[in-house]
């Protein structure tokens, strides 16, 4: 564990140095292909650096932050777009540049004390829900596989909520920047468009919108007209999302992809296109659509069923749950040993 922690520190010190270089390049090189050529080596190194991390607890967030978020934001930055652009008012400082590049971040005023109390309550509820899952997980051999798949979907959501909340509050406490909330009650989604566009993994949705959806939409408008332009834009966005998930899981499991994740997102892209076409066709005949108490369970059930069919098996293939539990035990033992050593030294 000590070696992994050392690698983790090295990866993030290197990342800060590389982003400092990008920060300087943004000051002296105008936006466009010249700036892109200057930062392409950094994008490549961000693909390589997470390979030094083998753990789930340290490697998973580092891979997501560097390989996906930072690289996509740097691509936007090369052309003077996105949250790193100096066109923002005020332009980011070096520390802000680093934080915005690596994390799903949004600059806000510091939260109030009531906001901090709500964070504590949220943490308590999330950990209680996580603790409630443990007895079921330990007896998973006696639970039907379909039920376990649904529980894994819930477990994944809670783990991601906790991970991003911890990072959000850490960044806020260090430099006064608050992270964009990653989730907005996805269990209340009334459609696939609502789930993916407004409730699930919001920063990734925003980055994909800027890097994939908007450019494809602009090209499609000139080729097939305004009415049908969103269709290839939506489909392209889901394809890129699927490919990025395949890449991340290659880092996690160090295995070649089986393309289940890509098919999961392709399926959702096709279904969202169908959903939008049907809504448009029924706009005049049925403007109110399905009532919430019908549309919400249908949307969430569709995501859960397709996720348990195509997404969760890939998570289990890299033994995400087993490795995370083992690493947590090793980390706790590492902390205990260091406490004993410190106590003996004093």
TrEMBL record:
- InterPro entries, A to Z: Wax_synthase, Wax_synthase_dom, Wax_synthase_Magnoliopsida
Q: Which family is this sequence assigned to?
A: Belongs to the wax synthase family.
Organism taxonomic ancestry: Eukaryota, Viridiplantae, Streptophyta, Embryophyta, Tracheophyta
Q: Where, by residue number, does the polypeptide cross the bilayer?
A: 7-26, 32-49, 56-79, 120-137, 149-167, 231-254, 260-278, 290-312
> Where would you say this protein principally sits, based on its record?
membrane
- Subcellular location, record wording: Membrane
Protein name per UniProt: Wax synthase domain-containing protein
- Tell me where on the tree of life, at the top rank, the source sits: Eukaryota
């Amino acid at each position: 564990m000590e070696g992994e922690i050392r690698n983790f520190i090295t990866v993030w010190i290197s990342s800060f140095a590389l982003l400092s270089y990008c920060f300087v390049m943004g000051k002296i090189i105008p936006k466009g292909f010249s700036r892109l050529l200057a930062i392409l080596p950094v994008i490549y190194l961000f693909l390589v650096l997470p390979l030094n991390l083998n753990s789930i607890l340290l490697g998973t967030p580092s891979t997501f932050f560097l390989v996906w978020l930072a690289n996509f934001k740097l691509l936007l930055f090369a052309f003077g777009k996105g949250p790193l652009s100096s066109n923002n008012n005020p332009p980011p400082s070096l520390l802000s540049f680093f934080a915005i590049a690596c994390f799903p971040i949004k600059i806000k005023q510091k939260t109030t004390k009531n906001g901090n109390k709500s964070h504590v309550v949220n943490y308590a509820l999330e950990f209680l829900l996580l603790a409630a899952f443990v007895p079921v997980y330990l007896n998973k051999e006696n639970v039907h596989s379909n039920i376990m798949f649904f529980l894994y979907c819930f477990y994944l959501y809670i783990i991601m909520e906790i991970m991003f909340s911890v990072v959000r509050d850490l960044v806020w406490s260090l430099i006064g920047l608050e992270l964009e909330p990653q989730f907005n009650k996805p269990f209340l989604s009334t459609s696939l468009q609502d789930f993916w566009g407004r409730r699930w993994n919001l920063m990734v949705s925003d980055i994909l919108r800027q890097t994939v959806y908007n450019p494809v939409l602009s090209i499609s408008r000139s080729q097939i007209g305004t009415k049908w332009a969103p269709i290839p834009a939506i489909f392209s966005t889901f394809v890129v999302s699927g490919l990025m998930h395949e890449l991340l899981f290659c880092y996690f499991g160090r295995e070649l992809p089986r393309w289940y994740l890509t098919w999961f997102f392709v399926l959702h892209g096709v279904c969202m296109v169908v959903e939008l076409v049907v809504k448009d066709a029924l706009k005049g005949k049925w403007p109110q659509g399905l009532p919430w108490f019908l549309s919400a369970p249908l949307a969430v059930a569709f995501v859960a069923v397709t996720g348990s069919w195509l997404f969760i098996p890939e998570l289990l293939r890299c033994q995400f749950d087993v490795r995370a539990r083992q690493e947590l035990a090793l980390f706790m033992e590492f902390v205990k040993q260091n406490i004993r050593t410190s106590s003996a030294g004093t």
